[in-house]
Amino acid sequence: MHRRARSCLLAALSLALAVLAAGCGDTGPDPLASFTGASLTIQARDLTYAPVIATAPANTPLRLILDNKDAGVAHNIHVFQGETELGNTRTIEGPGLAAVELPALAPGRYQFACTIHPEMIGTVLVQIGAPAGPSDPAETPPPDAPSLDTGSDAPAPPADTSSDAPAGS
Ligand SMILES: [Cu+2]
Fold first, then answer.
1. What's the chain's Rg over C-alpha atoms?
2. Which one in 42, 44, 118, 158 has a CA-CA gap of 20 to 30 Å to 169?
3. Sign of CA dihedral 116, 56, 58, 125
4. Of 58, 53, 65, the residue nearest 105 (C-alpha)
């Protein structure tokens, strides 16, 4: 009887410790807390990020939220600027949410990856004034896209290289 009371106390104590650890441990920022900056949600589904390419505003603190939809599968997001890691979410088993908060970023391309599944790679295009969200492929045509055919067969007027010369008189 005495023994049972003590094990009960131990159980209560370990529960309290677990709650404490969850409150101030390495669980990362609360994905649902308010955040003064831009928030971008990246799903992990079928071992793929969605969207694979996202945009986010430059010069604004950015919170990336990992929405892991893969039940029973653990994912994370590690964000890189070149070779330098800027931050990471904790690893979370799906379904579940985890977040990482990044400082204001300069315009550029930032890669993110899952350390558990090396094939899971995505890119955040940080652009001035860009909304936080999936990148619209219609707005970023491939560089070799053909120019629009205007239907005009008229040749462009030849460049007159002499017109810049000062007129003498
Ligand atoms: Cu993963």
1. 26
2. 158
3. positive
4. 58
Ligand 1: centre distance to CA 132 (Å) = 22
Residue type, 140: T
Helix, strand, or coil (residue 9): helix
- Residue pair 98/88 in contact by the 8 Å Cβ criterion: no
- Give phi and psi for 2, each to the nearest 5: -60, -40
63-86 average pLDDT score: 98
Residue 109 phi/psi, 5-degree rounding, is -105, 130
Amino acid at 117: H
State in Å: Cα 10 to ligand 1 middle: 36
CA of 107 to the centre of ligand 1 (A): 26
CA distance 88 to 70: 19
pTM as predicted: 0.67
Domains located in the chain, CATH noted: 31-131 (2.60.40.420)
Q: Which residue has the tokens 């005495």?
A: 2
Question: Which residues neighbour 67 within 8 Å (Cβ) at sequence distance 6 or greater?
Answer: 41, 42, 43, 44, 97
74 CB-near residues (< 8 Å, 6+ apart)? 68, 91, 92, 93, 94, 116
